[in-house]
Every structure is written in structure tokens, then in C-alpha cells.
Design goal:
It is built from three helices and no strands. It is mainly α and 106 residues long. The radius of gyration is 35 Å and the shape is flat.
């Protein structure tokens, strides 16, 4: 219904109305402080985890492991490789796959 009608009916029925004030009922915590505290807790937890002694890794004879100097590479899909190759050809070599222009010979 319309706010005026609702207000009028409430007044007629003696419904207790909440006085409209522009005050926030509970002062909000500053947002930056909240996130800063969370980041600080996470940092302290990470530091504590790093300081804890690590158990020795279990031996893995049956599993192939890449040599330590080779990082585990992201595997690109054929689509991604094709897009990269065609972009290289088109924008760096300016090869758009069009027939090359050659002037007619006499």
C-alpha cells in the first residue's frame, strides 16, 4: 500500500511507531581495521606454520618426479597454443595468410 495510507492506519489503530532518526543504531567498526586484523591473523598463522618443524617427506619411488630445476609447467590446451601462434603470425610478422601482392610482369 501507499506509505501515507499505512501511516494513517497505524496512527488510527495506535500502533507504536518508531521515531525516525538519522542515527545509526550501532556504530560500525571501521572496515579497514577489520580487514587489517584478519590479514594480521593470517600472517601470524602462516609464520607459525613456517616456524613449525616440517616432517620429512615420504619416499616416492613409484611416482615419477620432475627434476627440481624444472618447474611444473602449466599445460596449455591446443586451442590456446593455436591462438598464440596465429596471433604471433598476424600481429608480429604481419602475415594475415593473404596472397602476396606482386605487380604484373609487363
Amino acid at each position: 500500500g501507499h506509505p501515507f495510507v499505512i501511516t494513517t492506519l497505524c496512527r488510527l489503530r495506535d500502533v507504536p511507531a518508531e521515531e525516525d532518526t538519522d542515527e545509526i543504531s550501532t556504530p560500525e567498526r571501521p572496515l579497514g581495521q577489520t580487514y587489517f586484523r584478519r590479514a594480521l591473523r593470517e600472517l601470524q598463522a602462516a609464520q607459525a606454520a613456517a616456524a613449525a618443524p616440517q616432517p620429512p617427506p615420504a619416499p616416492q619411488q613409484d611416482q615419477h618426479q620432475a627434476p627440481p630445476h624444472i618447474p611444473h609447467q602449466h599445460q596449455y590446451s591446443n586451442f590456446e597454443l593455436g591462438m598464440a601462434a596465429s596471433m604471433y603470425k598476424q600481429y608480429y610478422r604481419m602475415d594475415w595468410g593473404l596472397p602476396h601482392y606482386s605487380p604484373p610482369l609487363m
